[in-house]
Amino acid sequence: MRLTRYFLPVLKENPSEAQIVSHRLMLRAGMIRQQAAGIYSWLPLGFRVLRRIEQIVHEEQVRAGHIPMLMPTLQPADLWRESGRYDDYGEEMLRIRDRHKRDLLYGPTNEEMITDIFRAHVGSYKDLPLTLYHIQWKFRDEIRPRFGVMRGREFLMKDGYNFDIDQDAAIHAYNRHMVSYLRTYERMGLTAIPMRAASGPIGGDNTHEFLVLAETGESEVFYDSAILDLKLGNRVVDFDSREECEAIVREWTAPYARTDETHDEALFNAVPEARRKTSRGIEVGQIFYFGTKYSDPMKAVVVNDKGERVPVHMGSHGIGVSRLLGAIIEASHDDRGIIWPEGVTPFPVGIVNLKQGDIATDGACEALYNTLRAKGLEPLYDDRDERAGAKFATMDLIGLPWRITVGPRGLASGLVELTSRRTGQSEEMTPEAAVSRLVQIYENH
Ligand SMILES: Nc1ncnc2c1ncn2[C@@H]1O[C@H](COP(=O)(O)OP(=O)(O)OP(=O)(O)O)[C@@H](O)[C@H]1O
Ligand SMILES: [Mg+2]
């Protein structure tokens, strides 16, 4: 992408309405525009990151054996009357009436709808286990939408639902989700700690939240710092193996980690003092096992291997896809702007031409641009007729992890400069060497 042909409306001034750094940077980097309280347009740069995050979520769900689908944003109220939640959900639910005076709602979550789909099409234990998920816009009429996409009213969520024959099988689904979530967040360059949590209106008592540590987080968290040393990395996991998933869950749930809702002072004090940490965290996901909470009232039953009709055991699992952009920026920025982890960056590399209009620098930039694209590394080429300082400031603000700087002085000896946004370190090398370095860096992303 050439910057002169792109749509990147960066802001020079700090927007006064933004209270936290991620919101400020998303506005300044031209990623989002607020259309109403808690409702945003995703401008091209923000949209690219959103799609990257979605892609990682999809890949890790499919790797765990879960099946993608898509349910609508609008749902009939009658389904929610069956579960009893139409009245319980309260003012957070956006209620809508169509021209035929039928009650609809903009879905805040999808337990009822997925249970309805299941009961219509599945009747036997032979069709289990089954986990279906989608990534779809949700609406919750939050009383205080704030912090940009972090607490929106309309937001993008991955929500998945498992259907299993009994509690043991459903607990395996729970564990499988925890493992797949750990890998999902790691690929985004995040440390998200699973913490035992209290369950909200979705119900049930077996639940963990995933929290990213950040001072601006809305939850107070207490944890044993030993948990920060755990990494899944490229471990090969057999998601069908109950033992393997359970072992990983045990590893991650052994160190103390809880939010204020479930915090237990006595247990916490048993952690060695040097490792006892109190902080704040951003909730980027949550998993639940809730048994037959929906299958009972909604009569989602299957015939088991003894020929008996039993309610199916369920759980639900959510990832805050749009919130993740804010969480990643909170965890990865400096005073000049965003620092995208390679896994989610909108463009893998930026090219800065220090002397636009000069035949040699233009030619070298074009050649780099084409070679990188051919390698599948779509660069953002700053081909504006601007001062070097302004180009560097834009690159730093939008946070591409790597920058190639092309100027007449280096080119005289056949060299360009490769700079890391994170460390600020630059290295001179030939354009070919810069390309192969980038290919190597992105091999695992
Ligand atoms: N208003 C929102 N804006 C953006 N993301 C949200 C919002 N509400 C929830 N999410 C994301 O969706 C995920 C799954 O939804 P869940 O039902 O667990 O939310 P929740 O526990 O009600 O969230 P919170 O406690 O932050 O209000 C959350 O972990 C969070 O990352
Ligand atoms: Mg939650």
From TrEMBL:
<dbReference type="InterPro" id="IPR033730">
    <property type="entry name" value="ProRS_core_prok"/>
</dbReference>
<keyword id="KW-0436">Ligase</keyword>
<dbReference type="Pfam" id="PF03129">
    <property type="entry name" value="HGTP_anticodon"/>
</dbReference>
<keyword id="KW-0648">Protein biosynthesis</keyword>
<keyword id="KW-0030">Aminoacyl-tRNA synthetase</keyword>
<dbReference type="InterPro" id="IPR002316">
    <property type="entry name" value="Pro-tRNA-ligase_IIa"/>
</dbReference>
<dbReference type="InterPro" id="IPR050062">
    <property type="entry name" value="Pro-tRNA_synthetase"/>
</dbReference>
<dbReference type="Pfam" id="PF00587">
    <property type="entry name" value="tRNA-synt_2b"/>
</dbReference>
<keyword id="KW-0067">ATP-binding</keyword>
<dbReference type="InterPro" id="IPR002314">
    <property type="entry name" value="aa-tRNA-synt_IIb"/>
</dbReference>
<feature type="domain" description="Aminoacyl-transfer RNA synthetases class-II family profile">
    <location>
        <begin position="38"/>
        <end position="341"/>
    </location>
</feature>
<keyword id="KW-0963">Cytoplasm</keyword>
<comment type="function">
    <text>Catalyzes the attachment of proline to tRNA(Pro) in a two-step reaction: proline is first activated by ATP to form Pro-AMP and then transferred to the acceptor end of tRNA(Pro).</text>
</comment>
<dbReference type="GO" id="GO:0004827">
    <property type="term" value="F:proline-tRNA ligase activity"/>
</dbReference>
<dbReference type="InterPro" id="IPR006195">
    <property type="entry name" value="aa-tRNA-synth_II"/>
</dbReference>
<protein>
    <recommendedName>
        <fullName>Proline--tRNA ligase</fullName>
        <ecNumber>6.1.1.15</ecNumber>
    </recommendedName>
</protein>
<dbReference type="InterPro" id="IPR036621">
    <property type="entry name" value="Anticodon-bd_dom_sf"/>
</dbReference>
<comment type="subunit">
    <text>Homodimer.</text>
</comment>
<keyword id="KW-0547">Nucleotide-binding</keyword>
<dbReference type="InterPro" id="IPR044140">
    <property type="entry name" value="ProRS_anticodon_short"/>
</dbReference>
<dbReference type="InterPro" id="IPR004154">
    <property type="entry name" value="Anticodon-bd"/>
</dbReference>
<comment type="similarity">
    <text>Belongs to the class-II aminoacyl-tRNA synthetase family. ProS type 2 subfamily.</text>
</comment>
<dbReference type="InterPro" id="IPR023716">
    <property type="entry name" value="Prolyl-tRNA_ligase_IIa_type2"/>
</dbReference>
<dbReference type="InterPro" id="IPR045864">
    <property type="entry name" value="aa-tRNA-synth_II/BPL/LPL"/>
</dbReference>
